[in-house]
Amino acid sequence: MYKTYTNMEENKENKENKEDVTCKPVKKKKISCHFCNKKLKITEHFKCNCGNYYCSKHMNRHSHNCTFDVKSKKKEELEKNNPKMGLKKGLITC
């Protein structure tokens, strides 16, 4: 009437049952315009310096009221790549 199992037999049955369960594939989230929420295709989206994706209508900085400061970023980049050279005494002769 009742089935009696040893620990090994129970483990085998549990493993078999777990293998039968299939997982659903994870879908990627569709990219949409951060300003108008329009769903974008692979070729239509543009990533701004502020880190958001926009459609062709809102890709310009003034179209989506971007707060990213390009001027200060470029200034920091120039200072990093072009260090100041120190002035050595004795090189200048009049």
Q: How is the main sheet built?
A: 2 strands, antiparallel
Radius of gyration: 31 Å
Report the CATH architecture of the domain at 28-70: Irregular
Strand order of the largest sheet: 1-2
CATH-level-4 superfamily name of the domain at 28-70: AN1-like Zinc finger
Structural class: mainly alpha
Beta strands, count: 2
> What proportion strand?
under 5%
The H/E string reads HEEH
Instruction: Compute the separation of the termini in Å.
Output: 113 Å
- Identify the overall geometry: elongated
Tell me, rounded to a whole number, the average pLDDT.
78
Please report the number of helical segments.
2
Concise description?
This protein is mostly helical and 94 residues long. It has helices at residues 7-20, 70-81; strands spanning 46-47, 53-54. The chain is built from 2 helices and 2 strands.
Explain what the structure shows.
With 94 residues, this protein is mainly α. The chain has a domain at 28-70: AN1-like Zinc finger (Zf-an1 domain, Irregular), CATH 4.10.1110. The chain has 2 helices and 2 strands, in the order αββα. It has helices at residues 7-20, 70-81, and strands at 46-47, 53-54. A two-stranded antiparallel sheet has the order 1-2. The longest helix is centred in the N-terminal third of the chain and has 14 residues, at 7-20. The model has no long low-confidence stretch (mean pLDDT 78).
